Amino acid sequence: MNEKIIIKSEKLCKSFSNGGIQQHVLKNLDMQIYEGDFTVIMGPSGAGKSTLLYALSGMDRPTLGTIEFSGERISEKNQDQLALFRRKHCGFVFQQIYLVDGMSIMDNILAAGLLVNKNKQQVLKQAKEMLKSVGLNEQIWHKFPTQLSGGEAQRAALIRAMINQPDIVFADEPTGQLNSQSSDMVLNTLTQMNEAGQTIVMVTHDLKSARRANRILYLQDGLIQGEYHLGKYQGSDEKRHEKLAAFLLEMG
Ligand code: ADP
Ligand code: MG
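Above: the input entities. Below: the structure tokens describing the complete assembly.
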């Protein structure tokens, strides 16, 4: 496993006030994310997986505690500073595929790329290369998101998330809305990106998705209750599936 820490949380707390009642979702949570890893966060529904992902990525501020991202204390940044930070360092994909419906696939990706790199020719060249590398060829570039299958659209969303070469891609249940075949295509893309060096943090409750990771964290009762290390994914493998299932059984 890679030993270089890219994100580190210390005593991370996140609470919400729901109808006047304080709900403590994350409770003094210490954790690290390592560069080059494909980390998965699992845990029961409502455990706070999304909340944790949003805190680690600077989408939301912690109630208490610190988060260091590449040595920078992002927990002390205000919302505007965080927005800039995210644009530069993070890529996001969600269960809901957030592509702009009124724009072609290529325009969606260019719009994201041009936020950071003003050289349109450069961004265009890179977008084409990246789309091709995940099997999205020319015939789909000028289509609109609703004309694509879920798997194609989510892969396009991944390219958009990666067009600015983020330090980390955060994925919150990225296959949650997809059928099995589309899920596999998206998971293959994520695996391929990780093989090329992209650090990934993904929330999932699905074992088939989780086994793509080399490090699995289990969140429950506001803390990381367990951690499991698998080698890097190298194709479908019964043993890998069994090991992970045994870990989850132990946790759940
Ligand atoms: P998970 O992703 O593990 O299913 P979440 O992180 O979405 O869980 O939510 C954890 C808990 O925090 C839930 O009980 C949810 O109601 C609460 N929560 C999450 N976001 C908010 C919010 N913005 N306002 C109030 N409560 C929230
Ligand atoms: Mg969630």
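Note for the figure: The two ends are 25 Å apart (CA to CA).
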